Amino acid sequence: MEILVCVKRVPDTAENEFELNSAGNDLDRDDLVYSVNEWDNYAVEEAIQIVDKVGGSVTVITVGDDESEEVLRREMAMGANNGILLSDDAFEGSDGLGIAAILKAETQKGNYDLIMSGAQADEGAGQVGGMLAAMLDYPYASLVNKIEISDGKITVGREIEGGNQEMNEMDLPCVLSIQTGINEPRYVGIRGIRKVASVDIPVKGTSDLGLDAANVGEAGAKTKRVDYFVPDTGEGAEMLEGSTDEIIEKLIEKLKAKGGL
Amino acid sequence: MTQIFAYIPFKNGAAEDVALEYPSAAKKIDEGASLTAVVTGSGADLDKVADEMTSIYSEVIKIDHADLAYPNAEVVRKVLVNIIPTDAIFLTAHDTFGMDLAPGLSVKMDSAYAADMVDFEGIDGTTLKAVRQELGGAVSTHVAIDISSGVVMTVRPGSFAPVDGGSASGAVVDKSGDAGDLSAKRKFLEIVAAEVGDVDITKSDVLVSVGRGIEDEENIEVAQELAEAMNSVVSCSRPIVDAKWLEKSRQVGTSGQTVKPKVYMAMGISGSFQHMGGVKGNPFIVAVNKNPKAPIFQVADVGIVEDILDFMPELTEAINDL
Ligand SMILES: Cc1cc2nc3c(=O)[nH]c(=O)nc-3n(C[C@H](O)[C@H](O)[C@H](O)COP(=O)(O)OP(=O)(O)OC[C@H]3O[C@@H](n4cnc5c(N)ncnc54)[C@H](O)[C@@H]3O)c2cc1C
After folding, report:
1. b or e along A175-206 (b: 16 or more beta carbons within 10 Å of the residue's beta carbon)?
2. What's the topology of domain B3-178?
3. The complex's ipTM?
4. What is the Rg, in whole angstroms, of the alpha carbon atoms belonging to chain B?
5. What is the pLDDT along chain A (261 residues), one digit of tens a residue?
6. How far is CA B92 from each of CA B117, B122, B157, rounded to the nearest angstrom?
């Protein structure tokens, strides 16, 4: 089974406190810590486990800048066999449809039975997998937390509201977006990353992919981010301040009043 | 005139709450727009929901077909492509069905796509201005959407004020005949119900809920001790279940349990909408988080900027000394 996994380099929400830049139109990205989108690690792990069982290969792919190569290498250190970086200045500012169109162009150059992505990434849209599937006319299932493959048939569980699971049978090739918790992604150490440090990762741009620059990037985007803003913290909680002892004293009074103690 | 269509999700013959929220969203998109509800399904449940919707929407499109008895997104998409005008605004909830349906629908409709809308600021020419969040709610953004060839959008449940039903006296339009070819490459098999755990977090008046800020499996005990002191139980956010530190039945959120405690202690939880979506009944929310900018402080009643690993044991001790 040939599996393609779409991954993304994103600001790590656990490692950063987000601030706006001085112009107020973007995040202050100077000191941001980036990592692989959390959901993508589950997708890559699942792909590796499938290939371990039924044979084949795992290719990881991303649309991004030069620095995105590091996330491909990380996923290759997990066990993905190949990496492909789709990178071009013309791709910048793409909306979800643009990213899906770029991925589609490369997907069609391969012969993939199964395409996976994370259920969502930093923008929280959860859009690229479903769009890619529709562009390729492949069936799609989102939020997948179980996959069984036998005799060329694939059965997938989707996690729906309340943690219930919706079981589906699908034709291959298909596209799946993977939900966290489907497996336990393996740990990647420095040594693993070093092992794949010199593996060649092809970089492809607009002309390699036969794309028209007018249809991708900012030029082709129908949905554009105008600015970032941080909602007023003042509107929210009453912040308890002082020494820890003072805070605890105030908190206990409140908890007593509200039925917490 | 702007035409807006809203897809009504329902379970067991009852529409989800978002059905009452679309009208407020539609008003914010364009006060003068027409708004039509779309319900797909089969049999008595569908008829019941369609009827119910006539008290909220002036027009309700109903598509009845045996293949729609369970909402398989691929089948529903095929129907919608035949029913919805290509330059319309289409709304569905940002829930597990909407996430399954909407991105592919935008491709098939050749429309713009925008996900998880939390606010709208009106249309200027062919540009719709809207608000959404990124990075788990840590930042908000304005987006400009070119709607000249229509748009498919998911709206976040709970973000738009529910309207009072009963005012409209709408009509049901049966468009089942226009459904078209419903063959699909994905077939629905069955629903496997979520596991039931040994602790029922929905029964507790107080919850000590831990998130990724607990950092390590061994630290769960610290929360357990606080919970005991407060005569309550430990619940958690999703990453704690993904890591297998606590069982799924302890997870609060849209893909976990819905809880209605009196007091909710959010310990090292950032406050994503999927987590807070499971916290109902307007409890007194105490948030302890070491990041003063954590989104949880927007929704909590009381906020404390501390490391939970230091704070929880001290709080436990103080309560035990009372
Ligand atoms: C379809 C779907 C359904 C989902 N359903 C659910 C659901 O049902 N329930 C759910 O919870 N999530 C759900 N999620 C995941 C959700 O989007 C978030 O990823 C998740 O809620 C984050 O959990 P968290 O707040 O514990 O972790 P994080 O967002 O990583 O937040 C951890 C917080 O802890 C703070 N912190 C770290 N260390 C400390 C410390 N020592 N002391 C104090 N504070 C500390 C950090 O500042 C941060 O604010 C769902 C996602 C999707 C896509």
Report:
1. bbbbbbbbbebeebeeebeeebeeeebeebbb
2. Rossmann fold (3.40.50)
3. 0.96
4. 22
5. 999 999 999 999 888 888 888 887 888 988 899 999 999 999 999 999 999 999 999 999 999 999 999 999 999 999 999 999 999 999 999 999 999 999 999 999 999 999 999 999 999 999 999 999 999 999 999 999 999 998 878 999 999 999 999 999 999 999 999 999 999 999 999 999 999 999 999 999 999 999 999 999 999 999 999 999 987 655 789 999 999 999 999 999 999 999 999
6. 10, 18, 10
* Token pair in block for residue A95: 């909306």
B121: chain A residues, CB-CB within 8 Å: none
Query: How remote is the C-alpha of A192 from its chain's centroid?
Result: 21
Length of chain A: 261
Chain B residues whose CB is inside 8 A of the A174 CB are 185-186
Are B189 and A233 an interchain contact pair (Cβ–Cβ within 8 Å)?
A: no
Cα distance between residue A196 and residue A240, in whole Å: 49
Determine which residue's CA is closest to atom 28 belonging to ligand 1. B270
* Identical fold, B3-178 and B201-320: yes
Q: Does the beta carbon of B274 sit less than 6 angstroms from any atom of ligand 1?
A: yes
* Interface contact flag, A168 B188, Cβ < 8 Å: yes
CB within 8 A of B25, min separation 6: which ones?
Answer: B91, B117, B120, B155, B159, B160
CATH of B201-320 given 3.40.50.300, 3.30.420.40, 3.30.300.30, 3.40.50.1220: 3.40.50.1220
Handedness of CA A170, A174, A175, A179 (dihedral sign): positive
Residues whose CB is less than 8 angstroms from the CB of residue A98 and which lie 6 or more positions away in sequence, other chains included:
A91, A215, A216, A217, A220, A221
Q: Is B272 helix (H, G, I), strand (E, B) or coil?
A: coil
Name the phi and psi angles at A116, rounded to 5.
Answer: -125, 155
Pocket test for ligand 1, best of B116, B135, B238 (most atoms within 8 A of CB): B238
CATH superfamily of A2-220: HUPs (3.40.50.620)
Interface test with B, best of A159, A161, A171, A228 (most B CBs within 10 A): A161
For residue B117, what are the β-bridge partners? Answer: B155
The SS3 of residue B133 is strand
Nearest to B256 by CA among B240, B270, B245, B267: B240
Alpha-carbon distances of B142 from A164, A224, A227, B120, rounded to whole Å: 34, 9, 6, 9
- Cα-based distances in Å from A213 to A88, A209, A223: 10, 11, 17
DSSP-assigned letters across all residues of B136-186: GGTEEEEEEEE-TT-EEEEE-TTSSPPPPTTS---EEEE-GGG------SE
